[in-house]
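Technical note accompanying the year-one report. For the benefit of new consortium partners, we illustrate the data format agreed upon in the data management plan: each record pairs a sequence with a structure-token string. No post-processing was applied to the example shown here.
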Amino acid sequence: MNEAAVPIRIALIEDNEDDCLAFHRAFKKNNILCKIIDYTSANKALQEIRSNPSLFDIIVTDHGLPDMSGLDFCKRVLAEKIDLPIVFLTGSGSEKVAVEALKNGVNDYIVKDPGRGYIKLLPISIQEVLKKYNDRIARKRAELALHKSEERYRKLFESTQEGIITIGHNGKILSANPACVKMLGYNNTEELTGRDVSTLLASPDLWESLLRELNEKRYIKNYEIDMKNKYHAKTINTLFSATIQTDSDGKIQRVEGMFTDITKRKIMENDLRELNRSLEYRVNEEIENRRQNEQMLIQQSKMAAMGEMIGAIAHQWRQPLNALGIIVQDISDAYEFGELDKKYLDETVKKSLNQIEFMSKTIDDFRNFYRTSKNKEDFNIIEAINSVITLQGAQLKHNYIDIIIKSGESKDLIITGYPNEFKQVILNIISNARSAILEAREERLLEEDSGDILIKHFKKKGSAVVSISNSGKNIPKEIIERIFEPYFTTKKPSEGTGIGLYMSKTIIEKNMGGMFYVNNIKNGVTFTIELPGAR
């Protein structure tokens, strides 16, 4: 098989049964993993491709079709801006049509000439077209990302409230943003450009000492520096940070700095000293408020988890309900066909009771899941994880998400804690993983029906370790430290409350004395739980 894990999805528009069969065989002979959907009607193919182009990776069309020519079909696809590569098939002697197709935007053409062995060329040509297309899309995305990055920097440079300045190796100012100009009382950037930076400092000798430290450390951060405005009539207190750009010999070429006006902050510090006198009372008041809020968060978290579980039960019940419906309908058919004897009735009753027993067990599992754990007790982590997967299995299967479990050497991982609260943590993580995978599919970071959740559990230095990874997408670096804050969520308001991960961290670290943390991995995220005292 082809080493690619995902098959090439091909829309083949071909009304000749022999040519269609030869096309399929060509890919099989070359061991190329593919999924070919055949169309004998160009209109039908156009309708389905138009309605959902993401179902295909490439279009291959013959020229001679019953309801429109292949060339007209290609023109309509291109006119509707359906962003899929197209390979045009034409008979020997019709190269002019193929050339016209290329002029209209078709990616490649193949002449159906058995003498030239076109069947063998088909898979290779299609793979090459698809590769060139994907490379072009990747380049476009990279160019767009670069443009957006430059645009963001430009907007940041122009709109930020922080003063940004670039200084040459000789101490002359090369550029300054509008905030810098305004902060120092100048009219425009031109008034600052070319000026010696030392003239902006309350202490002119300070620049030389800053350069020495930049040479040694390569950067400085949050230096308190007093600067002078245009007419030296006002001193501005600032926090100054800077980095250097050097040449191949390590000599400074320019300094890129940013400073923040903290003059008002200095004034406010005196006022804060007065406020601190009443801090103890305010802190105690805040602690009480936090205690009450935490109780409310616990209740909200339980309700959110219950909503997840009700959704899981709905998926669990759908299949047995469908099965019961089919069994009931079949009784009528059996009677009509004279098959309704005792043996048939016994088997039907047995099948029905099996489905009802499964549904009853689902309710028992749900009830046990929400039984309050008032006291710590010994429980098996592996069994707890499996019970959550059992309840979530149907919902994950419905979303085409696979769960992979890798166990360590220990068959049992026993710890002392709160089993149902632990299950709630596992439920939150799996629910978030499912959302991340579905979101990655929507953003085309994952193919349709792809994505999995990997669960590992093992014993390490006396602790039980559980890691749950998903292949959705990374959490942005700027917010990864905030995901455990209450009410902070990356989901849409209708899809997330922002309390699941906060309560999960509280349960693991505060209630059970463990550790709960997150790391980005390649194309995904891993949540890790460590609980002491495993045996």
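Partners are asked to follow this layout when depositing records. Residues 279-336 form the longest helix (58 residues).
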